[in-house]
Specification:
CATH architecture of the largest domain: 3-Layer(aba) Sandwich
Structural class: alpha/beta
Helix content: 25-40%
CATH topology of the largest domain: Rossmann fold
Order of helices and strands: HHHHHEEHEHEHEEHHEHEE
Number of domains: 2
Radius of gyration: 21 Å
Largest sheet: 7 strands, mixed
Length: 284
């Protein structure tokens, strides 16, 4: 096996994964991980020659990417908010647009000792990001999947975040008997016939965390029927959804009795998050 330089390895990788939307970034992340160096190092020392074992390892991870496996699963980590989270095939890969949930939650709730629930937590991305910013808040994170909760719990331990309690179960049924200032969720919202499920990273991610019945709305309807009973007066429900679902999700929140319903757009200008508030003064 002849030696190749860092520069040559990056060029080889870019040709191999030309079908990716993020060719150069993928190549840099994979090679940096193989070498145990930063991406800056790759361009500081472009002529450094890979050892035979480094080249072999790089070619093996590159082949996984060529087969379509997401870089996050190959590396076992994904950056989200200010955190580096461990991920595997039991959890969705956290995406930048979901940071809008964290940003909105932090802006909405001003109580110094607030109680927050993150339903369907997966890797714990949302719950741990909020917890890292508000260590005095009590946060409960739930998921149906025991394997996902293990990932989330491990992330909490690795990040030394202690103000999150993890509970297994379906949506609000898993919550303790208390009322929350905020309930947030990124639930399954993709229709089972959506062609995107056969493309890109989605092919490798857990289908149960992606797909919902009723045109992708079944879990959102379930959340909206349960969550108002678990909110304090004036408490908020925040839901992520598909870019075409904003008006429908807003109507579901309103029919559940929530007030001040509005839909927020992500950085790409797409409807991404709909929120509503439980009335401050409850009837009767």
């Amino acid at each position: 096996m002849t030696g190749i330089s860092i520069k040559q390895a990056l060029r080889m990788a870019s040709h191999a994964i030309a079908g990716s939307d993020t060719v150069q970034l993928d190549a840099e992340l994979l090679l940096a991980a193989v070498l145990g160096k930063s991406r800056t190092y790759l361009y500081t020392w472009p002529e450094q020659v890979l050892t035979p074992s480094e080249r072999s390892y790089f070619e093996s991870v590159l082949e996984r990417r060529v087969m379509g496996e997401p870089v996050a699963y190959i590396l076992g980590t994904r950056d989200f908010w200010t955190l580096t989270l461990r991920v595997n095939r039991h959890v969705l890969i956290p995406r930048p647009e979901t940071e809008l949930l964290v940003e909105t939650a932090l802006a909405l709730v001003t109580t110094p000792d607030a109680s927050i629930a993150d339903l369907g937590t997966g890797s714990g991305a949302i719950a741990l990001s909020i917890a890292s910013e508000r260590p005095a808040w009590k946060i409960v994170a739930t998921d149906m999947s025991g394997a996902a909760l293990m990932v989330a719990s491990d992330n909490a331990s690795l990040l030394n975040i202690a103000n999150v309690e993890f509970r297994q179960g379906s949506w609000c049924e898993a919550l303790p008997p208390m009322l929350f200032d905020l309930i947030v969720s990124n639930p399954p919202y993709i229709d089972s016939t959506d062609p995107h499920l056969t493309q890109g990273d989605l092919r490798f991610e857990p289908r149960s965390a992606l797909v919902a019945a009723d045109d992708g709305l079944a879990d959102i309807r379930a959340l909206c029927s349960q969550a108002p009973h678990c909110l304090k007066p004036g408490g908020w429900l925040l839901l992520e959804h598909g870019w075409t679902q904003g008006p429908t999700v807003a109507a579901i929140l309103q029919s559940s009795g929530l007030e001040s319903v509005q839909t927020l757009k992500d950085l790409n200008g797409n409807d991404r998050l709909t929120l509503g508030r439980r009335a401050l003064v409850l009837p009767g």
